[in-house]
Each structure stands twice: as C-alpha cells, then as structure tokens.
Amino acid sequence: MGNRRLTVREIAKIAEVSVATVSRVSRGTGQVSPEMRERVLRVIEEHGYQPSQMGRALAERKHGSVAIVFPGLSGPYFSELIQGFESEVVEAGAGVHIMATHNRATADADVLALASRVDGIAVHGGTVSTETVQQLSATVPVVMLAGWPLDGIPAVRADNSAIGKLTRHLLVDHGYRKLAFVGNPGGSPDVTERWEAFLAAHRDARVAAPRNPVRLGLQQSDGVIAAGELLDGRSRPRAVVCANDETALGVLIGALGRGLSVPGDVAITGFDDVPMSSLVQPGLTTVRQPIRELGATTARLLISGVGGRGAVMDAVLATELVLRDSCGCVRA
Amino acid sequence: MGNRRLTVREIAKIAEVSVATVSRVSRGTGQVSPEMRERVLRVIEEHGYQPSQMGRALAERKHGSVAIVFPGLSGPYFSELIQGFESEVVEAGAGVHIMATHNRATADADVLALASRVDGIAVHGGTVSTETVQQLSATVPVVMLAGWPLDGIPAVRADNSAIGKLTRHLLVDHGYRKLAFVGNPGGSPDVTERWEAFLAAHRDARVAAPRNPVRLGLQQSDGVIAAGELLDGRSRPRAVVCANDETALGVLIGALGRGLSVPGDVAITGFDDVPMSSLVQPGLTTVRQPIRELGATTARLLISGVGGRGAVMDAVLATELVLRDSCGCVRA
DNA sequence: TTGTAAGCGTTATCAT
DNA sequence: ATGATAACGCTTACAA
Fold this sequence. Notes:
The structure is a homodimer of 332-residue chains. With 332 residues, chain A is α/β, with parallel strands linked by helices. Chain A has three domains: 8-51, 434 Repressor (Amino-terminal Domain), CATH 1.10.260.40; 58-159 and 291-318, 3-Layer(aba) Sandwich (Rossmann fold); 162-288, 3-Layer(aba) Sandwich (Rossmann fold). Helices cover 43% and strands 14% of the residues of chain A. Chain A is built from 13 helices and eleven strands. Chain A has helices spanning 8-15, 19-27, 34-47, 53-60, 75-91, 107-114, 130-136, 162-173, 189-205, 220-231, 245-257, 276-279, 291-303; strands spanning 65-70, 95-100, 121-124, 142-145, 155-158, 179-182, 239-242, 267-269, 286-288, 314-317, 320-322. In chain A, the strands form three sheets. In chain A, strands 2-1-3-4-5-10 form a six-stranded parallel β-sheet, sandwiched between helices. Chain A has a three-stranded parallel β-sheet with strand order 6-7-8, sandwiched between helices. A two-stranded antiparallel sheet of chain A has the order 9-11. Chain A starts with 7 loop residues before the first helix and ends in a 10-residue tail after the last strand. In chain A, 50% of the residues are buried. Chains A and B meet through α4, α5, β2, α6 and α10 of A and α4, α5, β2, α6 and α10 of B. β2 of chain A pairs antiparallel with β2 of chain B. The structure holds a DNA duplex (16 and 16 nucleotides).
C-alpha cells in the first residue's frame, strides 16, 4: 500500500518523450504519431500510471465531480433518487459526492463548503434555506431537486398535482367526506404542493377540508405515530391521505394493528409508488413518480452545465395515479 | 452564478499582505499578529473568500475526501451503512464519494479510477475482485467493509456466527428438522459466512442440512421469488433461514399471501434487524448487527489513516440474536 | 508531430 | 512575525 504514484514527468523520462506527449496520449487528445503513442502507452501500462486527479483538476479548473445534498437516506425514495443520480454521473466519468444534512445545525455552512469540492451541486428541496442556495449558486452551478426553480437556478421535480386527482377520487368517486392529511407542508416543497393540491380538491368538490394537516415527518415511523393520533378517537377520518408511501405504510400497519379494516373502516393513500406498496395487503393506492428519472435528469443537467443557453430551467416530470385496494377500489 | 472566486493572491493584494499570511490566517496555522489577522480576516469575510480545494489538494497532496464502494442502494441495510459512514466523514470535515457497482462490467476499472480522486476507499465485500482490491491498495489506503481482511488491508465486519446460534435454536429448541437457506454464498463474504454457520449448526445438532442454498440476491423481491420456489411444492421446509431481513420479509409476504401460517406452517428468520422486522406481523426473528456502527468504524479507520502502527486490522463487531414470533417463539 | 514552459491556487520552506 | 518563492502534478498555448 502507498507505493508513491509516478508523475507525468517520470513517465515522460522513462518513455523518453516530453510530458506534453504523455499527457496527449493519456487523455487521447491532440495529434500523436502511432509509434509515439505505442511507446508511451506501453510505459503507462507497465507502471500502472494514472494521472493525478488533483493535478488535472487544478490545470483544467474543474474537479470532475458533482454533489447531491439530501436530508437523509431514509427509505426507498432517497435510495432510488440517489441511484438515478449516481448512475448517470458515473456513466459520464465523473465522481459523486454526497451530503446528508439530517438536521445538523451546521448544514448550511457544510453545503457552502461543499462548493469548493465539486463542479456542481444538486440540492434537494427542504434541506437548506433559500438564502443559502442563492449564496451557493454564486460560486457553483446548482440544480434544485424536488424544489422550485429560483432566479437563475433550474429545478427538476415531479408533478405533485396528481394528489389533487387522488383526493378528488376519494371525495367524488368514493364519496368519502372526512379526510385527513399526514405530512408537514413546511418541511419541503413537495409536501407543500401536495397539501395545497389536497386543499384545492376539497374546494372543487365543495367539501370541508381539515383545518390542519397532521404535521409529521416522512418516515414509516411517522406514519405509525399518525395512526395513533388519527385512529383512536371516535372522530376517525374516513380516509387518510399521506404525503408519501412510507408514512402511508406506517399508517396502514397502525390501522391493521388496531383491528381496523382497510379500506372498509378507513381508506389510506400514499405518494411515490415504492415497491412495497404493491406488495402489502391491501395494495396501496398512490401516485407514481419517476424517482430514478428525477435523479438522472438532475445529474444530466448538472453535467451538461447548468445555465447554458437554451437549457431547461424547470423540468416537471409526469406522475400517474395508481389505484389499488387501499382507497376502496377493487382491483380487476 | 459563476462569479469567479478570488484567489489567495488577490486577497493578499487587497489586504496588502503576502499570500503566506493569508494562507496562515485562513487555515489558522502559524504565528500571525492580531492586527494582521484582523485585517486579513476582514478582507476574507468581505469577499467571501474560500480557499480552492484543488489548489489546496495539490499542495497538501491529499484530496480531503474518502469513498465508499457498495453494490447498490437497495434496502435499509445500505442506507444505514452509508449514513453511518457519511456522518462520521462529514464530522471530520472531509468529503464523501460514493460509487455503486451494480453489476456493471466496468466496475473494477471504475473503482480503480476512483483511487485518483480520494484519500482512501472503503470497499464493501462482494463488489470487486480480490485482485482489484490488492491492486487498489497499492495506490490508496483501503478498508474492507463487511469482508475479510487481506494482506495489509484491514476489515470491519459483523460477527456472522450468530446465525449458527439462530439455526441451533430452530433445530434444537423448536425441533424443526427440514430447514432451507435463502442467499447466495458466492455473492459476498457475509453470506458465505452465514451459510457456513448454518451448515455447522446442522453438523453440531446432527441434523441433515439442505444440500444447496436457494441462490438468490438480497432484495425483498428475491425473497418473494424464494417463496415461490420453496413453499408451493409438498416438500416445503419447516423453517426458512434467510441471509438477511429483506429477503426474509419477502418470503414472509409470499408465505402469508399463500395462506400459510407463520410460524405455524413455516418459520422464517432473517439477519440485520431492520426497522420493518419489528413492525411486521408476526415479528421477525433475526440477528441484530450494528449497521451504522459498521459504517462509522470504517470511516474512522480510513480517516485516521489505515495501516498506522497499532491500527486495528480486523474489527469484528458483535451481533445479537433477536427472538420474535416468526421462528415459533411467543413474545412475552 | 513533438517539445518547452507558463500557468492553475495552495502550502510551506527559508530568509529577513 | 512577515514575505519571497519554490514546489505540488497536470494541461496547453506556443515554438520548433
């Protein structure tokens, strides 16, 4: 371990050529005669020479890697998102930096510091303040992921309005009157939009909406907690619309654990269509969003250079209503 | 966006000091008089100067970031593992590179290329060949994560032998005779050890072990497939020992979906103790391993410099048998 | 086609 | 305590 790596100069000396030629051969640019190329290639091969990324970075003034900032790796949504991002970046030959903000007090400062390590940063909605994002984008290209576009900062996000269609389905097709919403609208742009679509659907259907959402996080455990708050009293809602599948699955577990029938006693819906949602009994009615594609699109935007003329500034990816059993529909 | 950042030299000129002084102030090393420090700090603040990571990297000959290589982000195990790793690295002020190998044909080459981007690499067992790891460690410090130590390469792993205790519990305490094992021993060191401990327990109990494992991956969907292979015929096993919780949950879903009683008709066990395992009905009997700690320990090893005198070369973290209902035990 | 040499932005050594 | 200046390893005009 730790065999000092050779430098261009050493390779050049061994191959008896100039460093320029070595560089040209190793990166495949410029004109080099076949014999030269052959000779240099042999030496490179023989000594396992790999150009130092730091030397290269400094000379080219680019790091050759991009970063993705997200709240934490809880659940399949973020796994899928990051895989989509990572695959695309690696494919392009670049490196992938990650940073989870959790609720670290230093999150904003940490993200700002990231700027000096990468060529571009994808920031997931709900992780750092708008001011920080603005500040960040003064130094490095930024793409908002699952957030709103901002000034000259492009965004890649899913069409959350489908949760309006879903709510309408519960209200109109199933005739449910008392709905609850689980999720914290202040927590992220996605949840904000979903809550608003939920409210709008109530207005359209002329049904009274709940005054407040059940403000909880997006993890399964939050769903279990929500079940405790919603299902025990006698004022139980007829349907629970959750901000994502994870919480919906938590509520489902809570409901079944209380001996309630789903959807008989209470209907439950989610958002995302994670794999588990089609496996549980009853199958979860939800909205499918192309999570992987979200990550991949963001990566492409970052790699191809944000802000280029004619670049997409707001990519809104289509979503699709997936009706299963948990809303009261019976599968074919 | 893209305001070119100022360099030490520019800051030095503005503050009317030398670059050396700026460097000393910005990194807080060396002796600087209070007035100088004050003056420089003001300029740095005013212009939002941040030293370029590439310049710094080259001068210090270290990137200031480490990488973790894993097969893919499927399921809670890898999420947890990476969070443990990431938190520890960020805490130390370094950057985190990730790389998922999936089954990419270029995985080995890609990992080798990673070496020129980071100061150290954690390689998860089962991702790249032993030769590649050896080769890699010639250039950069490496730690095997959930794999075996190798030559001068340290490892951080969990004590898989607990699955032997688990198997013994099924064989001896419950008296089950026909067990099946789901997992591909060739897929990773962890699964190899678990399969071997499973076999050893059979020998100890003088019970015939199945000739072959059900060779499948570690995802929930693989468990669902395993259920199809194991539970339909009339030679159904009395208990199914799965290489991890994810597959066990898949088998559980498959079993319940077939109208079988768990553990009445078939007992099911896992490994990991992911959150879901305590939520399902029946609760999953499993082995708890400190996943987060695995990641954190690996990160610390990498950061504090692998191979240092007296450094740990093989950290085997303790695991714990968790008996719930799915093996046939009734919870208190 | 090949080589020479000037950066790229820091840090760190060595004078002062 | 402060300042010149030489690395660090690479790319890339520009020259030959």
